[in-house]
Design brief:
Length: about 140
């Protein structure tokens, strides 16, 4: 099974192109995905190339920008090409699904997780599909 799920931040704005034959949208961007801490207080990241097609690519280009946190599910694809007489190997993720995980700009109307660590720790933020609870609703 070839399946991958990632959460990270865009390192730059997505680039979009259209295929010459079918005019299918192709968006590419790089996701910085945090690694577990190597040593206490130190953090490292992997920079993973993401490619998506069609409507997903158009939405990515329209609503995503550098620094936005997103979730990506898809598959790993490897390849190679020649550059200056040397073979270069590539590994990318072909995205089947891209989800917006932070607010970004105000033009997006769907619920996105706020930029605070816990979206439930303020009274004015209740995710779609969840009811606002009071202390009386908790049985303990």
């Amino acid at each position: 099974m070839n399946s991958v799920s990632l959460i990270g931040r865009l390192t730059r704005d997505p680039e979009i192109r259209y295929s010459s034959g079918s005019q299918t949208a192709v968006a590419k961007f790089t996701l910085a995905v945090n690694r577990p801490f190597a040593k206490e207080g130190e953090q490292d990241a992997d920079f993973i190339g993401i490619t998506c097609f069609g409507k997903t690519a158009e939405l990515v280009e329209r609503y995503m920008s550098k620094g936005r946190m997103v979730g990506v599910t898809g598959r790993i694809q490897t390849g190679s090409y020649e550059k200056d007489g040397r073979k270069v190997y590539t590994t990318d993720v072909i995205a089947d699904r891209v989800e917006f995980l932070d607010r970004g700009n105000a033009s997006s109307e769907s619920y996105q997780q706020s930029e605070v660590d816990n979206p439930f720790d303020t009274d004015d933020q209740v995710p779609a599909g969840f009811a606002k609870l009071t202390d009386d609703d908790i049985p303990f």
